[in-house]
Amino acid sequence: MINNQFILEKFSFLGEDFLNEMHANAVITDIKAKTEIIREGQKNKYVPFLIKGSIKVFTLNDGRELIYYYIKPNDSCLMTFSSIFTDYTSRVYAVAEEESEVILIPVSVIHEWLIRFPEINKVFYHEYDKRFSDVMNMVNDAVFHRLDKRVLNYIKQQISATGNNPLKITHREIASNLGTSREVVSRVLKKIENEGEILQTKEGIKIPVNENVRSV
């Protein structure tokens, strides 16, 4: 059965008729960690809403990833939603960072809902505001921050998104996500560890408990 608590928290303001429509049309599914959900150029059939887990949305350039944002529980993928107004073709890749649970709504149903329940636009306007802020933060990080600051921010964002501290991630994964080399990331991690910003343990990379794990 569809996660009732999630639906009530996200959509109850749209009324009983809409909730009945949601139960009739939405599909819930589990996605294993590191599973590709959509790729650039692929046709979008569904708009996803994340119940639990974490999904990375990014593009690829010469084999290097450029991360746009992470979908967190209670969020949707704005890039997927925006594609339903053009040719339904994805302009991004989306991969489950960890084991995730999502609600999938067919794009044809979303089209109908936008007409029958126009207040649903509030949900997507809210998503747009969050995603625009995410992309602006990504651009500012890349342009104005040194690599050590970017690496530290990335680790904090991952801990915040997954709730895992320590964070199980390899130096190569960090390098791929930030568009640099593993060797450079290893040197940077050693530097910020010596500065007391992180701890590298067998369980993963840890932010000391008195640190704020949100990006700055």
TrEMBL record:
The lineage of its organism: Bacteria, Pseudomonadati, Bacteroidota, Flavobacteriia, Flavobacteriales. Residues 145-211 form the HTH crp-type domain. The keyword DNA-binding applies. It holds the Pfam family cNMP_binding. Keywords: DNA-binding, Transcription, Transcription regulation. One of its GO terms (molecular function) is DNA-binding transcription factor activity. The keyword Oxidoreductase does not apply. This is Crp/Fnr family transcriptional regulator. One of its GO terms (cellular component) is cytosol. It comes from the Bacteria.
